[in-house]
Each structure stands twice: as C-alpha cells, then as structure tokens.
Amino acid sequence: MGLGDYSHCRQRMFRGLYGVSGRATLWSPAFHPMQRIPCGTWRVEAPEQVRASSLVLEHLRRQLERAFQRAAARGRARRAREAVAAVAAAAAAAREERSRARMECALARLRAELLELRFQNHQLAQTLLDLNMKMQQLKKQQDMDRACRSQSPQEEEAAAAADPECGNA
Questions:
Q1: 12 — pLDDT class (breaks 50, 70, 90)
Q2: Is the per-residue pLDDT at 151 higher than 60?
Q3: What is residue 41's predicted lDDT score, i.e. its pLDDT?
Q4: When you count CB atoms within 10 A of the terminal residue's CB, does the N or C end of the chain come out lower?
Q5: 40 contacts 9 by C-beta, under 8 angstroms
Q6: What are the φ/ψ torsions at residue 43 (nearest 5 degrees)?
Q7: Alpha carbon of 147 to those of 72, 91, 124, 164, 167: distances in Å?
Q8: How far apart, in whole angstroms, are the C-alpha atoms of residue 97 and residue 4?
C-alpha cells in the first residue's frame, strides 16, 4: 500500500507530482495545512508540523531515490555480467565447434588413409596369391622335369606318348 492509498475510504485524495531529479521520480500526495485523514475527518496542522513532516518526507524521498539508483546500478552490473557470460558462452561454443571441425577433418583424413592402406593390402594379397600360384606351377613343372629325366629311355618313350609336355623337355 503506497502513501495516500486508502481503499477503505471512498473519498479521493489529491495527488501531485513530487519532483525528483534523474531517472527515478516519485509521486506523493500534496501536503497542505489542512489534510484529509483516512477516517474522513479534517485536521488542522500547525506550520511547524507541516515543515517537520515535509522534512521527513524529503528524507524518505532521498532514501528512496538512493535505493532506486543502487538497484539500477546493480541491475546494470547484473546485465553486464550476463552479457559477459553470454559472450563467454558464445566464444566457448565457437571454440568447441572449431575443435569439433578439426577433429572431423582429422577423422576424414584417417579414413582416407585407412582406405588407401586397405587398397594396398588388397593389392599385396593379390600379388602374394599370384606368386604362390606361379610357385606351385613352377614346382609342378620342376617335378615333372625331374620325373622325365629320371625315367629310363624306354619309359621316356612311353611317357612321351602319354605326356606330350615331358617329351618336349
């Protein structure tokens, strides 16, 4: 409930602008030697009482103004901290994104290298299989040549008739 806000009275109170310099301005009721009280009766105050109440109200106004200024300063500081935190979070997210991109690039290079190694491995395996087959063929041919040489001349004629390769050797 603010100053001069009496909802149980149906009478309206005059409110004027109580000037405050700066951003924070306060509204307070205008004070006159005759003032309305919540119960609806009139009371006449002495000029000293009016001055004393004006001083108290002025003191309250200054305290409120300082409190508003401190709250505004704290709000600005909080907003500044939040802005710094947001910038720091954005920078951290950008760093994380760059490191993620670097990792993905490195992984792509490794995949390409692995595919190249796989291809080379396949080629080497194929070469080894071909060499093994040729070695087997040479071994068979060498065994046949030995068998052809070790046979007697009579057996050579029979073998030559049966095996044309042995006769050519």
A1: very low
A2: yes
A3: 52
A4: N
A5: yes
A6: -135, 135
A7: 110, 83, 34, 13, 11
A8: 59
Whole-number Å distance between alpha carbons of 84 and 78:
10
pTM: 0.38
Using one digit for the tens of pLDDT, what is the confidence trace for 104-150? 999 999 999 999 999 999 999 999 999 999 999 999 999 999 888 88
Alpha-carbon distance of 80 to 152, in angstroms, equals 109
Q: List, in sequence order, every residue forming a beta bridge with 42; answer none if it has no partner.
A: 36
Question: What is the spatial distance between Cα 94 and Cα 96, in angstroms, rounded to a whole number?
Answer: 5
At residue 159, the pLDDT reads 60
At 20-61, the pLDDT tens digits run 444 444 444 544 444 544 555 555 556 677 777 888 888 888
Query: The tokens of 105 are what?
Result: 């690039």
State how beta strands 15-18 and 34-36 pair: unpaired
Q: How many other CB atoms sit within 10 Å of the CB of residue 50?
A: 14
* Nearest-5° Cα angle at 121, 115 to 127: 140
How far apart are alpha carbons 102 and 91 in whole angstroms? 16
DSSP 26: E
